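Question: what's this shape?

___
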Amino acid sequence: MILDVIKVPNEFLNSRSAEVEEVTDETRKILEDMAETMFAEGGIGLAAPQVGYGQRLVVVGFPVVDGLAIPSKSDELGPHLQKLVNPRIVSGTGTTTFNEACLSVPDIAIKVRRFKTVVIEAMDETGTPIRFQAEDLYSVCMQHEIDHLDGVTLLHKMPGPKRRGYLRRRKRVSGT
């Protein structure tokens, strides 16, 4: 099921998400719906708070073609889809700067400085602990999505005047 993506300035996006105590069928259903939503919206990552769930869940889809996660023809959601429960960064090295965009912060991209390489620990959708290294764009994507779990959006990365101007434009567009 494709879910509605919450947009700023919704305060829910500023809340820290709760740890998942046990991976259940409900957890797996949320992850599946998140993956469908991410691909439908043309994203390469999605965190649970972006679709209204206050849990530490993330989906990321690779490979990336022209900056978008593209599902494989052999598998509806693509062979590189990762569904992560309670992901956390255990180490980071180097720095890189990417022009980042976000499904919850539409119509803008900003340069953000991040670790070039990160090591992530999480559980997969079966509850099995996993550990992996992410580099370059994949590293940036992981850091971006984990930021969402901590209540941090791209708005927090913008300088004050740019953030205020963006929010004024968003309010005009959304009519709030």
Remarks:
- The chain has one domain: 11-174.
- The longest helix spans residues 25-41.
- Residues 158 and 164 are 9 Å apart (CA to CA).
- The two ends are 27 Å apart (CA to CA).
